[in-house]
Amino acid sequence: MEDKPALNVGSNFGISMVESYGMFFRHYDFKKLLQLESKYNLIPKMHIYMVVKVPKTIFVQDSISINKEYITLKIRIIDERVDNEIEFRIINNLKKLELDVVLSPNKDDIEIRDVLGNYVFKANSFLCLISNGNVMDCEVVYIGRSFGKDGERTVYDRLKSHSTLQKIYAEKEDDKSIFLSSWDFTRNTLCFISPVEPDDQKSAEIFMKQFEMSERPYELIQKKQEINFTEAALIRYFQPKYNDIMKYRFPSKKHTEYSDLFKENVDYVSVEIDTQRLYVKLHSEVVLAKFKHNPFYDLKDKRSKYDFFRFI
Q1: Are 220 and 213 in contact (CB under 8 A)?
Q2: Is the residue at 271 inside a domain?
Q3: CA angle, 75 then 81 then 82, to 5°
Q4: How many whole angstroms from its chain centre is CA 110?
Q5: Strand 48-55 relative to strand 136-145, pairing
Q6: For 140-162, what is each residue's pLDDT tens digit?
Q7: How many structural domains is the chain composed of?
Q8: What is the pTM of this model?
Q9: Which residue, 46, 70, 94, 193, could crosslink 12 as a Cys pair with Cβ 3.0–4.6 Å?
């Protein structure tokens, strides 16, 4: 007796990834973030990261005024505008007048504390702005991923020693600051759109097969492959300045991770990012600054896949 042929589960199987968590930080925050992620489980394990350039911001030293109720200060955004300062009023929870104000050499970090080391205020100027609802543009200059064998390696492990990151810092512009961002993406759905079958029974079987497969998504596309597809789509979309290897083409077919992706029976990849809640607009040399980005890549045929991966 012959075995039954494998059931065709229909066409248009695709991966839709939705950004669910994002955060911006400086290189000196690695240790703290690793603790929040691994020791305390307060933030998700994130595997996609972006290096961004933002307008330089500084605390205006001569604007700082202290009384027992409030501390008033200004943050200046260094851009083409002549007068671009934003004033903040902070509650003086220590109710003291004798407070030490310490600014970093670049004037982008501030600490206000008493002689015992009790803080009234400690902040970075850029993070202070976006945390208080001031929208800032961020140019995406590099995108990467970190996963490891079983997902144990995250963004912070990768960025601790990263040659490209060091290059970006070395080429920093006077009116720009470098920030890092980490991102968590969740799979919105595994989409199947079945062709219309003349046989109702066959259509029902295909539908049930698709439903069963959607309940076990990682049997089709593993988590690591999911991260790789997400990184690939983001790089193809933003074309960041420092992603030289993958900006216009992916590594050669000999690069096993990407040659494996090329072989996957995936008809499309979609990625959604909405940064309105973070008060930042992402952009690049080829993408305008906006809150919502939704790159979509049709991979139905070999030509489309070659265009996506740019094998040469």
Answers
A1: yes
A2: yes
A3: 80
A4: 26
A5: antiparallel
A6: 999 988 775 555 566 666 666 66
A7: 1
A8: 0.81
A9: 193
